[in-house]
C-alpha cells in the first residue's frame, strides 16, 4: 500500500496513479470496511482547492393521499436553534451518502428506515448554511400511510410529523428541498413552509 506521504510528495503522476490503483485493488479485495475507507481517504492526493462540507437531508413523507405529512426536527443548536428542519447532518469521513442519511435519520428521530430511498438533488448555493460553504444531498422516502413513531434525539430537541399543507417556517433551504422531493414522488407540493 502506498503511504499518504508518498502520494503527497510524489514527483511523478505515475507514482500517484499507481498508488491510487493499488488502493482500488485493495478495496475490491478488502471490501468497504471503515478501516479501508479511512486509509483510502488519507491516500487521496491533496489539492490546493477549497472544499465544501458535505451533508445529507431526508424528506420522509407518510400518511394517506389527502393528509400527507413530512417528518421534521426542531433544531437544538445554532444555526436556526428552535426552528424546524429536515432530519440530516454532516457526512463522516469515509461514509457513504446513503449510510450517512440513514444514520442521521436514526440519531435525530429514532426512525430506523430500511425501505427504498431516492436521491433528489444536491444543494450548494452560496450562503445556504451560515456556518460556511456546505453542499447537501437531499433524499426522499415514502413511509406509506402510517407514519413511523419519531422522537427527537442527538442535536434535535424534538421530532414530529407535520402536514404538508400546514408546514412551519423551515431552516436553511429545506422548503425548496421538500418541493423538489415531492416532485420526485409525483406529489404536488408547490409551496410548503412559510
Task: Provide an overview of this structure.
It is a single chain. The chain has about 190 residues and is α+β, with helices and mostly antiparallel strands. Mean pLDDT is about 85; it is low at about 1-15. It has 5 helices and 7 strands. The termini are far apart. Helix 2 runs antiparallel to helix 3 (about 35-45).
**End-to-end separation:** 53 Å
Average pLDDT across residues?
84
What structural category characterises the helix and strand content? alpha+beta
Globally, the shape reads globular
Strand content: 15-25%
Give the SSE string. HHHEEEEHEEEH
Number of strands: 7
Number of helices: 5
Helix residue percentage: 25-40%
Uncertain ranges: 1-17
Biggest sheet character: 7 strands, mixed
Q: How many whole angstroms does the radius of gyration measure?
A: 20 Å
Topology:
Elements: H1 4-8, H2 13-30, H3 34-43, E1 53-62, E2 69-75, E3 84-85, E4 88-90, H4 97-109, E5 118-123, E6 134-142, E7 156-163, H5 174-185
Parallel strand pairs: 1-6
Antiparallel strand pairs: 1-2, 1-4, 2-3, 2-7, 5-6
Give the gist of this structure.
By secondary structure, the chain is an alpha+beta fold.
Keywords:
194 residues; alpha+beta; seven-stranded mixed sheet; 30% helix; disordered N terminus
Amino acid at each position: 500500500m502506498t503511504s499518504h506521504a508518498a502520494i503527497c510528495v510524489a514527483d511523478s503522476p505515475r507514482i500517484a496513479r499507481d498508488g491510487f490503483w493499488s488502493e482500488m485493488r485493495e478495496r475490491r479485495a478488502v471490501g468497504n470496511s471503515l478501516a479501508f475507507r479511512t486509509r483510502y481517504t488519507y491516500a487521496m492526493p491533496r489539492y490546493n482547492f477549497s472544499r465544501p462540507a458535505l451533508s445529507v437531508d431526508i424528506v420522509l413523507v407518510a400518511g394517506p393521499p389527502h393528509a400527507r405529512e413530512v417528518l421534521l426536527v426542531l433544531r437544538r443548536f445554532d444555526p436556526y436553534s428552535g426552528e424546524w428542519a429536515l432530519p440530516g447532518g454532516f457526512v463522516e469521513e469515509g461514509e457513504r451518502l446513503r449510510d450517512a442519511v440513514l444514520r442521521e435519520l436514526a440519531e435525530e428521530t429514532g426512525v430506523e428506515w430500511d425501505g427504498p430511498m431516492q436521491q433528489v438533488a444536491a444543494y450548494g448555493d452560496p450562503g445556504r448554511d451560515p456556518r460556511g460553504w456546505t453542499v447537501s444531498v437531499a433524499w426522499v422516502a415514502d413511509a406509506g400511510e402510517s407514519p413511523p413513531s419519531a422522537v427527537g434525539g442527538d442535536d434535535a430537541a424534538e421530532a414530529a410529523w407535520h402536514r404538508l399543507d400546514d408546514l412551519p417556517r423551515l431552516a436553511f433551504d429545506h422548503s425548496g428541498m421538500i418541493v423538489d422531493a415531492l416532485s420526485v414522488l409525483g406529489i404536488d407540493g408547490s409551496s410548503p413552509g412559510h
